């Protein structure tokens, strides 16, 4: 299946976020990376999840650039989403190991399992409530922004960054929708309905954040089908107006509205495609429909299989009862014959 789920910031969403960045910083306390001292680590981990970058002092290079980008993404995150996560640098001054603080930092690094200098920077995650540094979870993937943020998402379900999702196949369906002439007669109306219903069914293929976004696409398809193409322009203008007029709107709310604006834009952007692109598009649609069909028949098959198993068990129990009854009758008959024989013998 060629359907992909990725993340990107559309132009309108980027402009909206940038326009209110300064105001939002003033309205709420901005999260940012900090240096975390060994003596503060345990108490900090009681209140929040803690992501540490264990590294030597004054580092440079690509790994440090990736960390700086991670901190920038963290600072740009909606505060309500990341308030339960602290990201910080755990510095070890390898040039002053005779120093008391450096020795203490290295001792903690050993407990964290991050004492090997050749592996630095080493990312360690301490979940909220962690009592001992040895319980930290070591990240073993590529030390990139995407790799580390995905690691945090998997471990503690916190999404770092202010991001807009897009679903490639649904974007293409929306663009195709907009290229269909609304006054094209019955054929055009049937084609639009086809795209709308397929989009609704495709929602069942997605999980997590992607499912929520897919549901947004489905709602727009339904609304446009009911209210016409004018719905897209009217709703988009209304949402953009809300962002511009409310200076106290949270980053999380701006992100939500920007996500909706991005999806609406796809319904106003007709596309011209080649014959090859057209074949690929319809293949993707048919593949998704076939996949949904397989899922449906699989569920139905499992239900019937369960019913048959229940029937078989009931039948086996009934046969056992009949068999038990026959055996009982046979034993009673045998007892009667033996009693008759004894009576005859006594006579």
Automatic annotation (TrEMBL):
Domain of life: Eukaryota
Source organism of this protein record: Odontella aurita
Ranges where the Endoplasmic reticulum resident protein 29 C-terminal domain occurs: 167-267
Official protein name in the record: Endoplasmic reticulum resident protein 29 C-terminal domain-containing protein
Keywords associated with the record: Membrane, Signal, Transmembrane, Transmembrane helix
Segments traversing the membrane: 281-304
Basic and acidic residues biased stretches: 315-347
One GO cellular component term: endoplasmic reticulum
UniProt keyword Ion transport, yes or no: no
Database matches in InterPro entries: ERp29, ERp29_C, ERp29_C_sf
Keyword Plastid: no
Leader sequence segment: 1-28
Start and end residues of each stretch annotated as Disordered: 310-347
């Amino acid at each position: 299946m060629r359907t992909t789920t990725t993340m990107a910031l559309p132009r309108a969403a980027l402009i909206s976020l940038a326009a209110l960045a300064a105001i939002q910083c003033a309205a709420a306390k901005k999260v940012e990376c900090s240096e975390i001292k060994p003596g503060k680590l345990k108490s900090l981990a009681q209140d929040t999840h803690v992501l540490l970058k264990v590294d030597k002092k004054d580092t440079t290079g690509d790994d440090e650039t990736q960390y700086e980008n991670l901190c920038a993404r963290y600072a740009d995150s909606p505060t309500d989403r990341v308030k339960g996560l602290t990201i910080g640098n755990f510095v070890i001054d390898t040039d002053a190991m005779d120093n008391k603080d450096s020795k203490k930092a290295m001792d903690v690094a050993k407990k964290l399992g991050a004492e090997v200098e050749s592996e630095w920077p080493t990312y360690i995650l301490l979940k909220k409530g962690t009592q001992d540094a040895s319980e930290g979870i070591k990240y073993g993937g590529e030390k990139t922004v995407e790799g580390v943020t995905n690691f945090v998402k998997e471990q503690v379900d916190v999404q770092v960054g202010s991001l807009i999702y897009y679903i490639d196949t649904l974007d293409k369906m929306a663009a195709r929708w907009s290229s269909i002439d609304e006054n094209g007669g019955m054929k055009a109306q049937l084609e639009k309905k086809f795209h709308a219903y397929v989009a609704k069914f495709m929602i069942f293929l997605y999980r997590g954040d992607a499912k929520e976004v897919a549901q947004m696409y489905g709602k727009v398809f339904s609304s446009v089908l009911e209210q016409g193409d004018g719905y897209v322009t009217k709703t988009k203008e209304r949402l953009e107006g809300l962002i511009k007029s409310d200076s106290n709107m949270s980053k999380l709310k701006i992100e939500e509205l920007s996500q909706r604006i991005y999806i609406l834009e796809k319904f106003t952007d007709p596309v011209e495609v080649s014959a090859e692109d057209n074949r690929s598009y319809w293949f993707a649609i048919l593949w998704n429909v076939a996949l949904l069909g397989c899922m449906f028949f699989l569920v139905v098959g499992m239900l019937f299989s369960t019913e048959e198993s229940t029937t078989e068990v009931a039948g086996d129990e009934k046969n056992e009862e009949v068999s038990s009854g026959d055996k009982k009758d046979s034993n009673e008959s045998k007892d009667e014959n033996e009693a008759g024989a004894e009576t005859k013998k006594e006579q």
